[in-house]
Amino acid sequence: MSEDTWRSAGERIDTLVNSFGVGGAATRERAEQLVREVVDLYGEGLARILRMSDARAVDRFVRDDLVASLLLVGGLHPDDTETRIRTALDGVRPYLGSHGGDVELVGVENDVVTLRLTGSCQSCPSSSVTLELAVTDAVHAAAPETTSIEVVQPDEPSLIAADSLMSRIHAAAEHEWVAMPELESLADGDVAGFEVAALPVLVCRVDVTLYAYRDRCPSCTGSMAGARLGRVLGGGVALTCPVCRVHYDVRAAGACMDVDDLHLDPLPVLVRDGVTSVAVPTGSMS
């Protein structure tokens, strides 16, 4: 079974169960009972496997996305919700750091996850959305039993309004992750263009970190094909548009170094299931 096939299995099962609804309530109830029986059967099998396994084997189980998801369904995962979320956040922390940000788990109460996002990138709306996309994806995968996420801003006692946060989370969720293993071939200082799900993307590597941006200069609105990286005073790294010569700070979520309120559109780059992947907006790429 391919990666995409098992990841969408839950949706296909829901669709099949819902289709039984046309046969009436009794038919749907029998379909739901069938699913419960199968889940219980495989759950008991997984429970026995866990009892016969040592700690090292169990650790390998929980690090496999498919096995971990089955353990969660059966209520067999050895880690509690907060531990799973902290582990997931550790996995995306290098990406957050590449955009000048970080994340802290404040707590989980009544299935609501409270986080604190920090860093200079909070002033950049586009970067904020990419951070929320990466964090939300990680939290939902690690703790599907949670119902929502709330974010506390640094030095502010109040939470972001739920409707405001959810609208941003909804916008962030309208992305698709595309496996791009070829990005690993980029060396330090390389800049290359790719087409990811029909979207022109510019990717560069600084030291060991990959950065991806939509291939569009916000100053001249043209493609940045042919752009080059260069070190600047203070330790920054500038990506220069080959057309208008405007500079963008790669390590600061693409903030313009010449004009206020301009920035490149950053795209999340994460290693998902061992494969370097880029998240691009679904639908229109215009």
Automatic annotation (TrEMBL):
InterPro entries: FSCA_dom_sf, NIF_FeS_clus_asmbl_NifU_C, Rieske_2Fe-2S, Rieske_2Fe-2S_sf. Residues 177-278 form the Rieske domain. Keywords: 2Fe-2S, Iron, Iron-sulfur, Metal-binding. One of its GO terms (molecular function) is monooxygenase activity. The keyword Ribonucleoprotein does not apply. It comes from the Bacteria. One of its GO terms (biological process) is iron-sulfur cluster assembly. The keyword Iron-sulfur applies. May be involved in the formation or repair of [Fe-S] clusters present in iron-sulfur proteins. This is Fe-S cluster biogenesis protein NfuA, 4Fe-4S-binding domain.
